[in-house]
């Protein structure tokens, strides 16, 4: 038998907004810093390394090696990347969906991304959430059950009365599934073509746009049972 949902918890990057915009703003901020330090303009090259070559880890190291720049620039460029204050835009439907869900449920956010609070401010979404956990700030990750336990306590909810919405099947659903949370995958963004690595990482439901989420949560027990998933929660 399903239990009523009392809270909805979200991932941030590529779930509420397109991470590519954050990366583009960060790359430009880092390139501005490198230009100030070296006099060289590498904006387009950094975007090519990141987006065209797909080198999203060690991006600045590649640039430094190519041009025989000071290795000390790497760490400072990373800091500049994450310190950008350029406004970000959520997906077109994000604001309305959060506002709608916020009238019926407590809302939480758990992100492994650095600078989660600043991202929410830049997106103009901070006011929607009752609690926000940015795991790098507590030296943890979404693979740690205690992160979710902290959220349950903060929102005063039980795991099986909570929905978790994320986009990356490699990291987003294993722990919530183990808790008995209802898991919903937004198949969008960087990881849209990636399949779950194992059964424990498979979401209960899948959507292509956030505006499908309210109906997914509200789906009847009969419809959920027919699809092999209880949207209202797991026993």
Automatic annotation (TrEMBL):
Residues 192-211 have a biased composition (Basic and acidic residues). Pfam families: HAD_2. Its cofactor is Mg(2+). One of its GO terms (biological process) is small molecule metabolic process. Keywords: Hydrolase, Magnesium. The keyword Hydrolase applies. Residues 192-235 are annotated as: Disordered. GO terms for molecular function: hydrolase activity. Belongs to the HAD-like hydrolase superfamily. This is HAD family hydrolase. It comes from Halonotius terrestris.
């Amino acid at each position: 038998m399903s239990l009523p949902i009392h809270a909805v918890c979200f991932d941030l990057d590529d779930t509420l907004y397109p991470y590519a915009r954050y990366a583009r703003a960060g790359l430009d901020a880092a390139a501005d810093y490198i230009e100030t330090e070296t006099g060289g303009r590498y904006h387009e090259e950094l975007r090519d390394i990141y987006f065209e070559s797909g080198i999203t880890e060690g991006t600045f190291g590649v640039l430094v090696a190519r041009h025989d720049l000071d290795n000390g620039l790497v760490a400072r460029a990373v800091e500049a990347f994450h310190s950008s204050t350029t406004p970000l835009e959520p997906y077109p439907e994000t604001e309305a969906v959060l506002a709608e869900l916020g009238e019926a449920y407590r809302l939480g956010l758990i992100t492994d991304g650095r600078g989660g609070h600043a991202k929410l401010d830049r997106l103009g979404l901070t006011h929607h959430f009752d609690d926000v956990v940015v795991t790098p700030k507590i030296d943890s990750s979404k693979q740690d059950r205690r992160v979710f336990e902290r959220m349950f306590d903060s929102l005063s909810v039980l795991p099986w009365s909570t929905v978790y919405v994320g986009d990356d099947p490699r990291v987003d659903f294993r722990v919530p599934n183990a808790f008995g949370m209802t898991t919903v995958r937004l198949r969008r963004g960087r990881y849209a073509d990636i399949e779950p690595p194992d059964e424990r990482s498979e979401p209960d439901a899948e959507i292509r746009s956030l505006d499908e989420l309210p109906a997914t949560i509200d789906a009847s027990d009969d419809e959920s049972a027919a699809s092999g998933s209880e949207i209202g929660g797991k026993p």
